[in-house]
Amino acid sequence: MCQVTEFTSIDCGGTSNYTDPNTRLAWISDNGVIRHGNPVEVENPDENLPQYQRRRDFPIDNKKYCYTLSTDERRRYLVRATFLYGSSVEQDTYPKFQLYLDATKWSTVTVLDASRVYIKEMIIRAPSQSIDVCLCCATTGSPFISTLELRPLNLSMYATDFEDEFYLEVAARVNFGALTKEAIRYPDDPYDRIWDSDLDKRQNYLVGEAPGTERINTMKNIDTNTREYPPIKVMQTAVEGTKGTISYRLNLEDFPANARAYAYFAEIEDLGVNETRKFRMEQPYIPDYSNAVVNIAENANGSYTLYEPSYMNVTLNFVLSFAFVKTRDSTRGPLLNAIEISKYVEIGPKTEGQDGKTPILVCLLFNQSFSPCKAYKFIIVPV
């Protein structure tokens, strides 16, 4: 399991170091050590989220503005960048710009709602002892960033057959049957993944719910000691298709694409002696998987134990419709605790110019007593 002292948490544009009152994680400010970009106070921020009080804006020019984060070569990490524009001035042009990880185009950040926190996550196996997270190429507005986070993962987590050629860009991570609209993350998830609540209703997100879908939960402990270690709190809730079907529809940003998909199941009800719960995935139809019958208690070797089938490489559309349907001999409807979908992003080769870039700010090493990160520096290079 990772240690909190290995977490990197940077408040971009923040004024001081602090401990987040919600997660108890230590954050550092880039204020005073970055000569480029301007800290901007965010209008109408959520006072309970100190890292979103300000953002850092960068110039509109032909340069990449990069944060360099220290990594252990070939270790897997979750890299997360977040963006809250926050301005409500009507004449403001909302920004649209590019986000890069080293030479790999990560995503296009397009702000459509000033009050929304846009979250970009990438799962990587570190190619060297550091990575660069860069902003550039604005077509409207100025590039900006609110936070930058680096979270080390357990050795077994998110391994693929293609990780030397592809990163995994997280497209969806959903907690079904959630008790509140709040996302689950650290400390409930020791790796600080963000599990969105299925109660967080927004446009084109988890629509088309099947009739008879009911929410169930348990306080019993769930054995999640498998490859991906989803948090127990996520596995303690689920949705059940009491009329025989679970179905949803959601949009996947930057799709169609090849993806790695995970389904997380745990039987969290005490079934009677003559009760069974068997079902198949009918949508999307994937020949090697759709014909397989899921019997959670049997697949997981007991109730209250995680079963996590994964789909190593599937092609998914921008609009994902999925459905689980009970078999004819099943007495109970299908059950779903969580899903996770990530897009394969081809790793771009580093150029000679990137390998030889010169840092314009010294590398900062932090005392382990505070230890929000091992090290980071800030650089600027031509695009």
Describe this structure in words.
It comes from Ilex paraguariensis (yerba mate). Residues 10-343 form the Malectin-like domain. One of its GO terms (cellular component) is membrane. This is Malectin-like domain-containing protein. It is found in: Membrane. The chain has 383 residues and is mainly beta. The chain has 2 domains: 4-165 and 347-382, Galactose-binding lectin (Jelly Rolls); 173-344, Jelly Rolls (Sandwich), CATH 2.60.120. 4% of the residues lie in helices and 40% in strands. The protein contains 4 helices and 26 strands. The protein has helices spanning 232-235, 287-290, 296-299, 352-355, and strands at residues 8-11, 18-19, 26-29, 38-41, 54-57, 63-70, 76-83, 96-101, 104-110, 118-125, 130-140, 144-145, 147-152, 166-175, 196-197, 213-217, 237-241, 245-251, 257-264, 279-283, 310-316, 319-326, 335-336, 338-346, 364-365, 375-382. The strands form 5 sheets. Strands 1, 2, 3, 7, 10, 13, 14, 15, 19, 21 and 24 form an 11-stranded mixed beta sheet that branches. The protein has a 6-stranded antiparallel beta sheet with strand order 9-8-11-6-26-25, with no helix packed on it. A hairpin with a 2-residue loop joins β8 and β9 (104-110). The longest helix is centred in the middle third of the chain and has 4 residues, at 232-235. It is elongated and about 70 Å long. The protein starts with 7 loop residues before the first strand and ends with a strand. Mean pLDDT is 88; it is low at 352-375.
